[in-house]
Write a structure and sequence with these properties.
Number of domains: 3
Pfam families: NOV_C
Distance between the termini: 104 Å
Shape: globular
Structural class: alpha+beta
Largest sheet: 5 strands, mixed
Strand content: 15-25%
Protein name: Protein NO VEIN C-terminal domain-containing protein
Radius of gyration: 26 Å
Order of helices and strands: HHEHHEEHHHEEHHHEHEHEEEHEEH
Domain Protein NO VEIN C-terminal: 268-359
Number of helices: 14
Helix content: 40-55%
Oligomer: single chain
C-alpha cells in the first residue's frame, strides 16, 4: 500500500471513530466494542470468539470483512487477521484505545435514566403493554429478534419482545423514541431470567400449543422470520389479559354530523399515502409499498394514520385534511400523547383536498415532531371535555302524563 493510500485509510477511520463510540448500536460500533472487551479479557482475540460474541448481528461477516480490508467503499480498515488471530491495525491502535478509554469513562459517569422491572407482575404489565399495540410490533421487533416473554392465561397467549418487556413503566412509543438503545439485549435477557428464576427455552422445546400460537402471531407481521431462532420464558397470570384487539376503536362510532369530515379525512389519507409512496420511491427504495402501512384502516385508535418503516427514517404520520390550505386543525388527546411520545419519528402531513369526488389534492406541509413544534411556534387550546352522568343525581325525575 502506498503512503498516500495508508494515510487516506487512517483518516477515513479516525473521522468515524467518534460516531462509532457515541452510537454503540451501529453494527461496526458493536463489532469494535466487542473486540476491545474480548481483548481486555483474553489479550489474544480469535475470530471464532468475536463471531460468537457478535452472533446477534445479522451482517457481522460482511461488516467484519470490510473492517479488515482496504477498499474505496469499505468503512475503513481497523483489523489485522493472521490465521485466526485478530489484532487492531497498528497505525490506528493508539487512536482507538484513546477513544475506548473516553468511552468507558463517560459510560461509568452516566446515571441510569431507566429502571428494569422488579418482579413477574411488572414484567407481565410490560408484556401486556407491548402486545396491546399491534401497530408498533414491526417497528419495535426489528429484523431478527430471538427472545420473547410469553404469558399464558388458560387458552389465551400473548408475547412480548424481551428487550422491551424488561423496562419498567414505559410505553412502546417511548421505547421507539428514547429507550431502544439504552441497553443491549443480553442485559435484558439476563435480568428477566433472574427475576423469574427461569431459563430461556428454545422454540423446538416448548409445547406445541405455544409454538403454534407464536408462529401464527409473528408471521402475521413478520412473514420471513426464522421461527427456530426464538426462545421463551413463560409466566402464568391468573387475571384475564386483554386480547390484542381490545383497544381498537371502530371508525363507524364517529358522530353523524362528522360524516363529511370523515370523507375528507379518508380522501386526504389516500393522497398522503400516494405522497409517501412517491417520496420513498424517489429516494431509491424498490417496492415502496412493502414499507408503508395504512394503519388507520386497521385501528382508528392508533394515534396516527400511516406508518412508514424505512431504515433510518421511520415515520408515524397523522394526516390532517381540509378543503383549503388552512393550518387550523383538531387533535385528539390520543393523537397528542402518541405523537408526543414518538418525538422525532412523529409527523403531521397537511393535505389540501382540491377535488373530493376525484380524490385529488396535495400534501402542502410536513411537520416533524409536531407537538414540540406546536408548543414552540403554534397554539394548542383545549376545547372539549369527556363527561359521564351517574344515576344518582338530584334532578332525575321522569314526568309522565
Amino acid at each position: 500500500m502506498s503512503d498516500g493510500n495508508e494515510i487516506y485509510q487512517i483518516n477515513k477511520v479516525v473521522s468515524k471513530l467518534p460516531r462509532w463510540f457515541k452510537n454503540g448500536h451501529r453494527i461496526n460500533s458493536q463489532i469494535l466494542l466487542n473486540y476491545l472487551k474480548l481483548e481486555e479479557e483474553y489479550e489474544t482475540v480469535k475470530y471464532e470468539h468475536l463471531a460468537e460474541k457478535c452472533k446477534h448481528l445479522r451482517t457481522f461477516k460482511t461488516n467484519f470483512d470490510q473492517m479488515k480490508n482496504f477498499g474505496e467503499k469499505n468503512h475503513g480498515k481497523i483489523f489485522e487477521v493472521i490465521d485466526t488471530n485478530i489484532t487492531l491495525w497498528k497505525p490506528l491502535k493508539k487512536e482507538i484505545y484513546l477513544h475506548y478509554k473516553n468511552y468507558k469513562r463517560e459510560l461509568s459517569s452516566k446515571k441510569l435514566d431507566y429502571k428494569f422491572v422488579d418482579n413477574e407482575k411488572e414484567l407481565a404489565e410490560s408484556t401486556i403493554e407491548f402486545f396491546s399495540k399491534h401497530e408498533f410490533w414491526k417497528a419495535t421487533i426489528g429484523n431478527a429478534p430471538k427472545y420473547f416473554v410469553h404469558i399464558q392465561n388458560g387458552k389465551n397467549h400473548i408475547f412480548g419482545l424481551s428487550k422491551f418487556c424488561a423496562f419498567k413503566n414505559i410505553t412502546i412509543e417511548e421505547y421507539i423514541s428514547s429507550y431502544r438503545y439504552k441497553t443491549n439485549g443480553g442485559n435484558t435477557q439476563k435480568h428477566i431470567a433472574r427475576i423469574t428464576g427461569k431459563d430461556w427455552v428454545p422454540r423446538n422445546k416448548v409445547n406445541s400449543e405455544i409454538r403454534e400460537e407464536f408462529d401464527n402471531w409473528i408471521t402475521e407481521f413478520h412473514p420471513n422470520y426464522t421461527l427456530n431462532n426464538a426462545s421463551f420464558i413463560t409466566i402464568t397470570q391468573k387475571k384475564k389479559v386483554p386480547s390484542k384487539r381490545k383497544k381498537f376503536i371502530d371508525p363507524k362510532t364517529l358522530e353523524e354530523q362528522l360524516k363529511l369530515q370523515s370523507v375528507i379525512g379518508a380522501v386526504g389519507e389516500e393522497i398522503a399515502l400516494r405522497f409517501e409512496l412517491n417520496r420513498i420511491e424517489i429516494s431509491g427504495i424498490k417496492n415502496p409499498e412493502k414499507y408503508i402501512e395504512h394503519t388507520s384502516k386497521k385501528n382508528s385508535g392508533a394515534g396516527f394514520d400511516i406508518n412508514c418503516l424505512v431504515k433510518k427514517d421511520n415515520r408515524y404520520i397523522e394526516v390532517k385534511s381540509s378543503l383549503n390550505n388552512n393550518l387550523d386543525f383538531f387533535i385528539t388527546e390520543n393523537e397528542y400523547c402518541t405523537l408526543k411520545q414518538l418525538g422525532e419519528e412523529a409527523f403531521i402531513y397537511f393535505v389540501h383536498v382540491t377535488n373530493l369526488e376525484k380524490k385529488e389534492g396535495k400534501v402542502f406541509k410536513v411537520l416533524r415532531n409536531p407537538i414540540l413544534e406546536l408548543k414552540a411556534n403554534g397554539n394548542l387550546k383545549p376545547i372539549a371535555y369527556k363527561a359521564s352522568l351517574g344515576e344518582k343525581t338530584h334532578h332525575n325525575n321522569v314526568y309522565k302524563k
